[in-house]
Amino acid sequence: MRLMYGCPPAPDVDRDRALEQLVKAVQKSKAKAKVPEKHRANYVPAPHYFALNQACDVINRAFSNGSFGCYLVGSSLERANYRDVDVRCIMSDAAYDQLFRTEQTWCNPLWSLMCTSISVWLAQMTGLPIDFQIQRQSHANEKHPGKRSALGVFLDYPGERPTDVAPKDEK
User: Fold this and answer.
1) What tens digit of pLDDT does each residue of 97-113 get?
2) Distant-in-sequence, close-in-space partners of 111: CB < 8 Å, separation ≥ 6
3) Of 99, 94, 95, 90, which is closest to residue 140 (Cα–Cα)?
4) Would you place residue 170 in the very low, low, confident or very high pLDDT band (cuts 50, 70, 90)?
């Protein structure tokens, strides 16, 4: 037996036991450690989300009198395996009643036609399965208090747009 620095080598049994204990300790610490969830604004693919924003800008302008705009709601904000993309246009109660109030309480043909037509148009523009609905503000706030993400809202920085900057030759 050869001595190194005056100490005999440790037997292989002790080394194996130490290695096993180390492996067990690492596995235990991994089991206890919680991996933080990644925060995502939504699970809609980026090119589709951009197209959805562009299309919702048109809807927001069309309903600018009495509308609070379009919002992304539902499962596409929470998980990647959403069935469809829920888009809601929320209108003030007065504007909604002026446009859609009828004696029929459960089915308004104009509301149905508009929601269906806009759903199909948004699906064609974005390539996404869209469920579009126009909602009354009080109903939306009372019955659907979950997360909402505004759509079709773009910030404008005058003086920084390509059309605002004069070519160098004209200065």
Assistant:
1) 999 887 766 678 899 99
2) 100, 134
3) 90
4) low
Which residue, 41, 64, 51, 65, is CA-closest to 130? 51
| Tokens (6 digits) for 158 | 């005058």
AA letter at 162: P
Let me know: does 49 contact 125? Beta carbons within 8 Å: no
Tell me the residue ranges of DSSP E strands in 7-143. 67-73, 85-91, 130-136
**What's the predicted TM-score (pTM) here?**
0.70
Contacts of 2 (CB under 8 A, 6+ apart): 9
For 153, the token pair is 């809202």
CA 165 to chain centre: 34
Residue ranges of domains in the chain = 46-151
Q: List, for residues 130-165, the tens digit of each pLDDT value.
A: 999 999 999 999 988 889 999 999 887 777 777 766
Long-range contacts of 35-43 (CB under 8 A, 24+ apart): 41/77, 41/149, 42/72, 42/76, 42/77, 42/149, 43/76, 43/77, 43/78, 43/79, 43/80, 43/82
CA distance 112 to 63: 16
Q: Quick one: fold of 46-151?
A: Beta Polymerase; domain 2 (3.30.460)
